[in-house]
Specification:
The chain has 463 residues and is an alpha+beta fold. The protein folds into four domains: 172 residues, Nucleotidyltransferase, domain 5, CATH 3.30.420; 81 residues, GIY-YIG endonuclease (3-Layer(aba) Sandwich); 97 residues, no CATH class; 71 residues, no CATH class. β2 and β3 form a beta hairpin. α5 runs parallel beside α7 and α12 runs antiparallel to α17. This is Exonuclease.
Length: 463
């Protein structure tokens, strides 16, 4: 079995947008290096000053060096039939595989990560950074942050790992069923092994325990492992591989509950790698207030978190359509509802559809009675129901609660509980913040699964 110990220097951290400036490959036959090859590479792009400061490689040094495409065939021949080894292997492998693919070569090697292997075979060290690890193991490391120096030290490190591997961790890592080759360098296999095959929400955490990504899953183990499969060169995946140190999870009874919990947890923790749901927010809402003449006025405005609203909308068109329906059915004044402006009297008054509140002909007491009827009607339109579904175990069922068109909360109750005792049921649930995204998830699910829905009858809640 032959190994290719590899180290590269690059212009940045993402393969798809950056180039390789230097590469070193040490071919090992067992514990012995039998061949070496290294070269500066012209990345065909500017080397940032901070990279130059780190590696010492500048634009002048690579100006006459071969481009990657010019040495791609030789690199492929050296690597394609070897075990690919590097310190934080997924970084080097992703870069080389990406740039080989641009030159028409497909690299599919088994991989070994000396960071992961060192954590397993040399546990308890203060750091597994290559420089500090070499110091701890008395390995000579010259020309730090240059491909040749780092690759030579990594080859010595790998030889020590082979000698220390009395329990055959390395051979097991190379087995087809093993996940060791694709896991992030700082993530213990134990975190994967303990993941259940149930619906739920998972949390990627960095070295300090900060949540950097939240996701939901029908099958927690399968979904988490999918993040580490393949060889994507995207920036987000590279950040995962570099920063994930541990994984937490919450089991949910259903995928719906996982979706809801994911949305609430993203809004709570705002992880840096979650983008789609972080951008979600209610955009418009229907508000009421009393003007200086005592008239209750309804109007659509941008959603304000601190102001109680009667209804919320994703688009201003939806809001105006609902408001116009209330105006028509309850003979409200278009001007007092801000549908019309710059008029003395609204057009509804001209056609006998408004009693003249806009002109002061109808007093506020009479007008406000109809506005309150419209508000009460709106509240009655808002659905109140419970969705019962499977729980986390066979002894319980899940419950998702919608009240007056807003998500109240969710939880789990015993199959022996009286599901007709709504007050008892509600007290057993965990309250969560509501938003249109979550409500729409639940409404859609209830519509597609009517047999799981049970209606609740409530008096309109006070806003």
């Amino acid at each position: 079995m032959k190994y290719a110990v590899v180290d590269i220097e690059t212009t940045g951290g993402c393969p798809s947008g950056n180039g390789i400036t230097e590469i070193s490959i040490h071919i090992m036959d067992g514990n012995t290096v039998v061949e070496t090859w290294e070269s500066l590479i012209n990345p065909e792009q500017f080397i940032p000053s901070y990279i130059e400061a780190l590696t010492g490689i500048n634009n002048e040094m690579v100006a006459e060096a071969p481009t990657f495409s010019e040495v791609a065939v030789h690199i492929y021949e050296l690597l394609h039939d070897k075990i690919f080894i590097a310190h934080n292997v997924n970084f080097d492998y992703a870069f080389i595989r990406h740039h080989l693919s641009l030159s028409g070569h497909t690299l599919n090697c088994k991989k070994l990560c000396t960071v992961r292997l060192s954590r397993k075979l040399f546990p308890g060290l203060s750091s597994y950074n290559l420089g500090k690890l070499c110091k701890s193991l008395d390995i000579n490391l010259e020309n730090r942050h240059r491909a040749g120096g780092d690759a030579a030290a990594t080859a010595v490190l790998f030889a020590k790992l082979l000698d220390a591997d009395v329990e055959s961790h390395i051979s097991r890592s190379l087995e087809k069923a093993s996940k060791e080759q694709v896991l992030p360098p700082h993530l213990s296999r134990n975190y994967i092994d303990r993941l259940p095959s149930q619906p739920g929400v998972y949390y990627f955490r960095d070295q300090k325990g900060k949540i950097i990504y939240i996701g939901k899953a029908k099958n927690l183990k399968k979904r988490v492992c999918s993040h580490f499969s393949g060889n994507s060169s995207s920036k987000q995946r590279q950040e995962f591989l570099k920063n994930i140190h541990n994984i937490d999870y919450d089991i949910c009874g259903t995928e719906l509950m996982a979706l809801i919990l994911e949305a609430t947890q993203i809004q709570k923790f705002w992880p840096e790698n979650n983008r789609a749901l972080k951008r979600f927010e209610q955009k418009y809402a229907l508000y009421e207030y009393v003007d200086q003449n005592g008239y209750i006025r309804l109007g659509i405005d941008k959603y304000k978190k601190q102001c109680p609203s009667l209804y919320s909308f994703n688009s201003i068109l939806d809001g105006h359509n609902l408001l116009k329906t209330l105006i028509r059915e309850f003979r409200l004044c278009e001007k007092l509802c801000f549908v019309q402006r710059n008029r003395t009297a609204c057009t509804g008054h001209e056609h006998g559809l408004c009693e003249g509140a806009c002109l002061g002909v109808e007093d506020s007491t009479a007008y406000n009675l109809r506005v309150q009827e419209a508000i009460n009607h709106l509240k009655l339109m808002l659905p109140s129901f419970v969705v019962f579904d499977q729980g986390r175990t066979e002894d319980e069922q899940s419950c998702v609660w919608i009240e007056n068109g807003k998500f109240y909360g969710m939880g789990y109750v015993s199959f022996h509980s009286d599901v007709n005792d709504f007050e008892m049921l509600k007290s057993a649930l965990q309250p969560y913040p509501s938003n249109d995204y979550i409500v729409n998830l639940i409404l859609s699910y209830a519509e597609n699964n009517p047999e799981k829905k049970r209606s609740l009858i409530f008096e309109p809640a006070n806003q």
